[in-house]
Design goal:
The protein has 281 residues and is mainly α. The protein has one domain. 58% of the residues lie in helices and 5% in strands. It has helices spanning 21-41, 50-75, 78-83, 98-116, 120-127, 132-145, 186-205, 214-230, 250-280, and strands at 2-3, 10-14, 17-20, 159-160. Strands 1-4 form a two-stranded parallel sheet. A two-stranded antiparallel ribbon has the order 2-3. Strand 2 and strand 3 (17-20) form a beta hairpin.
Length: 281
């Protein structure tokens, strides 16, 4: 079994100013989007340029932060929001919803497309392969924060966490127990699947010309599948619990439409692509 390496969530303290690893992970995420976007924009025949990428990243940052935080508070933390409205500003404590962030980013992409005169789905297809490295960084931030642990397990790579810090995972154990039972490190599972695996799938798939909406459809489909599967071993938020059948989670309810819509986009993309080719012939 593995043991959780206790990492101080504060990377740097300068008097009253504290720089959290969680925030650093978000900066790394946006930096990855910018660098990969500039690389893609530099390829021969690209309709994008470095100024467009910089503008896109700015819109994306605003959409991610606002959408992710507002989405988390609405989907998972309404009670906390009502009790302490200012908690919505404390992003360094964790609590960012991917689904809320996705809505925020899509809204930001729509505004970007209108301002630049680029169709929405062309923007979305360009952005989709750039996102997974950012998801990877975000999940590493969750791991450092010690949040989003999975269920108890007996697999060899299960990870024990210190009871002094994560007492909720040690309930029912004798007083003075130092380590929890082994848990699924679901944050790392998501980093591997939503981050690394999804990046490879989308980067390779988008390396060749694809019908409009196809890359976006692949993103939604495979992210949805990966997230839906990880939810089977990830513990639901304590204040929400399972929604049905002792296994359905809020994450799965929010993710299932992504899978269906991703499959629909792929079907429409290739049907429209075939119709367009047939019309040209």
């Amino acid at each position: 079994m593995l043991q959780y390496p206790e990492i101080d969530p504060v990377a740097l303290s300068l008097g009253p100013l504290k720089v959290h690893w969680y925030g650093i992970m978000y900066l790394l995420a946006f930096a990855c989007v910018w660098m990969l976007g500039r690389y893609r924009a530099s390829r021969p025949g690209s309709a994008w340029n470095p100024d467009m990428v910089a503008d896109l990243v700015f819109y994306g940052v605003i959409g991610t932060i606002l959408g992710g935080r507002i989405g988390y508070m609405l989907f998972y933390g309404v009670d906390q929001l009502l009790a302490d409205p200012w908690s919505i500003l404390r992003t360094w404590e964790g609590g960012m919803s991917f689904h809320g962030g996705l809505i925020g980013v899509l809204t930001a992409l729509w505004f970007f497309g209108r301002r630049r005169g680029v169709p929405f789905w062309q923007v979305a297809d360009f952005v989709a392969p750039l996102v997974p490295p950012g998801l990877f960084a975000g999940r590493i931030g969750n791991f450092i924060n010690g949040e989003l642990w999975g269920r108890p397990t007996d697999v060899p790579w299960g990870m024990q966490v210190p009871c002094a810090k994560f007492g909720e995972h040690c309930r029912g154990l004798p007083p003075g127990t130092e380590w929890s039972p082994p848990l699924h490190a679901s944050q790392l599972y998501e980093a591997a699947l939503e981050g690394l695996a999804l990046f490879l799938i989308l980067w390779i798939f988008s390396a060749k010309p694809r019908p409009t909406m196809a890359v976006s459809g692949m993103f939604l489909l495979f992210y949805g599948i990966f997230r839906f599967l990880v939810e089977f071993v990830r513990m639901p938020d304590a204040h929400i619990g399972y929604l049905a059948f002792d296994w359905v989670t809020m994450g799965q309810v929010l993710t299932l439409p992504m899978i269906l819509f991703g499959a629909l986009l792929l079907a429409l993309a290739y049907r429209n692509g075939e119709s367009f080719r047939a019309a040209k012939e």
